[in-house]
Design brief:
Largest sheet: 4 strands, antiparallel
Strand order of the largest sheet: 1-4-6-5
Order of helices and strands: HEHHEEEHEEH
Oligomer: single chain
Helix content: 25-40%
Strand content: 15-25%
């Protein structure tokens, strides 16, 4: 484990700890099973009603299209939803009264996601 200074003399270990605390406070519950169940129901027009929670092609900075795949769905605080949106993340703030983040990464702890680390570092500076 590295002890390189990251931000405000914060070591990598300390940053990881701050990120884990942040996720524990701002990421509420996994909704993947629920959202996937809604997607299967033809009655609710999921794609039309919740386009931010559906993967697909989006235009990047170069004007080219990238395919975005959403792997997980998480209920997050309103504050985090706003911050994630400002970073270009897929967020729906009116999913039956919940703010839902469509996470486009998987296989690692949320606290290790680049966008989460960036938000924590910004909050600490």
């Amino acid at each position: 484990m590295t002890t390189t200074a990251i931000n405000n003399n914060l070591s990598e270990c300390d940053l990881q700890e701050k990120c884990a605390e942040f996720v524990g406070r701002e990421v509420l519950v996994c909704l993947s099973a629920l959202v996937n169940e809604f997607m299967q129901k033809e009655c609710c027009d999921f794609i039309d009603n919740y386009p931010e929670l559906v993967g697909g092609y989006v235009e990047n900075e170069d004007g080219e299209e990238d395919f975005i795949e959403i792997y997980e769905y998480w209920a997050v605080s309103g504050w985090l939803a706003e911050k994630l949106q400002s970073k270009g993340e897929r967020v729906e703030c009116d999913f039956h009264g919940l703010c839902v983040w469509g996470r486009t990464t998987t296989g690692q702890a949320i606290s290790m996601d680049g966008v989460i680390r960036e938000l924590v570092q910004e909050a600490l500076s």
